[in-house]
């Protein structure tokens, strides 16, 4: 449940808000503190700690600020921020927009019963089925295949853009025009490697991918993991799932093919310090912890055996062994990861 909520947060980074929505009424959520956690003045580890929330305390959740922080109010009425990690907080009810915010804003009609999902992906959890004839508000077009919508009760989610399921009856906020959705050939059953023309910035896509990946922190490692489930991952399966959850993009299934994909899509670098946040990093086989063991490596000749998402500041998000605890964040500088690095670049 918590993972699904975080994936939804990742997807929401791509959505364009309706003008005036900032003033919409929001129903507070709730959470219980699982273990002592810093209660901060801002959503950053560099912000001041007001106090420590204790195990067992209940707080009101005002918003999911991003994939890492919750804005909460304690029993004394003080508002601040806490980590959203499960080891600290159990989110018992997420904050939701109230029905009043959606009244009179409908700009689309459901043509045939369609899945209403919590993420723009067929792997997203189904909230419910939207029925034929329902009026909904399309708040943005996430990519060529998914709309972000709000139903009449104020619940937000995602539906296929296929004209077989939904018909726009008014303009999407910020788009300046209405269309029938006929430009999409998707039936809600697949994914695409293109979301051109949607106006979504590259940085927003990158943050969405990273947030989607962070949602799987701690997921167990399994070599050759099943690509149709998210119960375990190997390195390439994990990266593939993060892109699929966040963008609806299906990358190749193995790290070597992903490397070839990135090389064909963008320029790459063999200097990891030149990488940008969100770039994919490709590594050769592990030979040991000494740099001297990798002096004969060939950036484009050595076989790729591992892939990771670069977070910036010398950190990567990846998974590589059962013993390491599954999906995790690691520093690479001065370690075998730095010595094994072959090249990296953008998959967006």
TrEMBL record:
Record-level Gene Ontology MF annotations: cysteine-type peptidase activity
NlpC/P60 domain mapped to chain residues: 203-348
Question: Which GO biological process entries does UniProt record here?
Answer: proteolysis
Signal peptide feature range: 1-24
Tree of life domain: Bacteria
Task: Identify the InterPro entries for this entry.
Answer: NLP_P60_dom (IPR000064), Papain-like_cys_pep_sf (IPR038765), Peptidase_C40 (IPR051202), SH3-like_bac-type (IPR003646), SH3-like_dom_sf (IPR036028)
Protein name per UniProt: NlpC/P60 family protein
Organism the protein comes from = Cohnella fermenti
